[in-house]
Amino acid sequence: MANNIFHAQHAYYTLLTQKLATPSTSGYGLIRWDIQADGTLAPGDQGTQIIQVGNGSDLDDSAFDVAIDQSGKIYVACQPATDNQYKIMRFPAYSGTLLTNADWESDNTTSYNNNYAIAVNPAATYVAVSLNASNALLILDATTGATVTNISVGNPAHAVAWDNVGNAYIAFDVTETNGLWQTWSPPGANQATTVALETLHVLAPPSPPQITSISRSGNNVTIHFTGPAADPASAYLLLSSSVVPNFNTSFTTNAGAVITGSGGVYQATLTTTASAQFYRVQRP
Predict the structure, then answer these.
(1) In whole angstroms, what is the distance from residue 34 CA to residue 94 CA?
(2) CA of 75: how far to CAs of 6, 14, 117, in Å?
(3) Which of 45, 184, 225, 226 has the lowest CB atom count within 10 Å?
(4) How far is residue 90's CA from residue 141's CA, in Å, rounded to a whole number?
(5) What is the secondary structure of 205-240 as a DSSP string?
(6) Which numeric CATH code is attached to 4-184?
(7) Which of 73-77, 191-195, 243-247 holds the top average pLDDT?
(8) Cβ–Cβ under 8 Å, residues 240 and 252
(9) Of 3, 118, 126, 142, which Cα lies nearest the Cα of 65?
(10) Do 236 and 269 contact (CB within 8 A), yes or no?
């Protein structure tokens, strides 16, 4: 039988083929296919074997699942012919030479069909393995292969994955028609926030205020102006200058002006002196 599992990483796919017969040192190890720019394989591409199986390789029987971290290191889960064979291992990144020596190996005591799926977290610090016969989620140190924790999940575990903030997900079959999944967060106080995309609303600016008339009675001056109907009178300031305005003229806020009105029609009332003044209405 053949059980093909595809894993995408660094613009290529890796293919694991489960053993075609039960004796040890069978199978094809790990084979890589390069993907073209259009997402297809080149015609006639038979793949490149990158991990040897048997004949002195630490992978002494067919692999069952594979994961690759961001540096290209390869994590393999196996279901070998005998219980005393190693079932979890990490190989260095492939650099053109057929790999035979694992960086580390783990689990040569559980049953041969225990290690079902493997996944490495985005930081490449932990490896998760779903255990079929043990009904557990196994977490290993990705650098050494040492066991960090073994969590009982209550059912045969058939799939495992990580998210970007360190939560481990595991799935398992309960019956032939129903399946369940669980998620486990790292121990201790922890939290994660995902920044949502912001939506910017660009609105047309309101019409600027327009002075419509100026009236004077003695030292009292009333400046009439218009603006958006929804504005309160407090939305405006009266600015004044004693020189003819140009691009370099500095206006100052006339603190003594009282602005009233509503519905788009407003008045600024103030007391002035005999000297000439120039005015602007500002909507901050």
Answers:
(1) 13
(2) 14, 12, 10
(3) 45
(4) 11
(5) PPPPPEEEEEEEETTEEEEEEE--TT--GGG-EEEE
(6) 2.130.10.10
(7) 73-77
(8) yes
(9) 118
(10) no
Domain residue spans of the chain = 4-184, 210-282
Instruction: Confirm if 81 and 23 have CB atoms less than 8 A apart.
Output: yes
Residue 5 host element (H or E): strand 4-9
Answer positive or negative: Cα dihedral of 78, 84, 85, 88. positive
Tokens of 82: 């005998």
Whole-prediction pTM: 0.60
Which tokens belong to 88? Answer: 């979890």
- Residue 53: what residue type? V
Q: Please spell the DSSP secondary structure of 147-177, one letter per residue.
A: EEEEEE-SS-EEEEEE-TTS-EEEEEESSSS
Pair 82, 24: CB distance under 8 Å: yes
CA atoms of 129 and 88, how far apart (whole Å): 9
Question: Which structure tokens are listed for 104?
Answer: 């580390």
Q: What angle do CA 121, 12, 50 make, to 5 degrees?
A: 85
Angle, vertex CA 263, rays to CA 258 and CA 265, nearest 5 = 50
| pLDDT tens sequence across 122-180 | 999 999 999 998 999 999 999 999 999 999 998 888 999 999 888 999 998 766 666 68
Under a CB-based contact definition with an 8 Å cutoff, are residues 264 and 212 in contact? no
CA 69 to CA 143: how far, in whole Å? Answer: 12
The pairing of beta strand 265-271 with beta strand 220-226: antiparallel
Over range 110-132, report the average pLDDT.
Answer: 93
Antiparallel, parallel or unpaired: β 237-241 and 63-68: unpaired
Angle (CA) 71 75 78, round 5°: 165
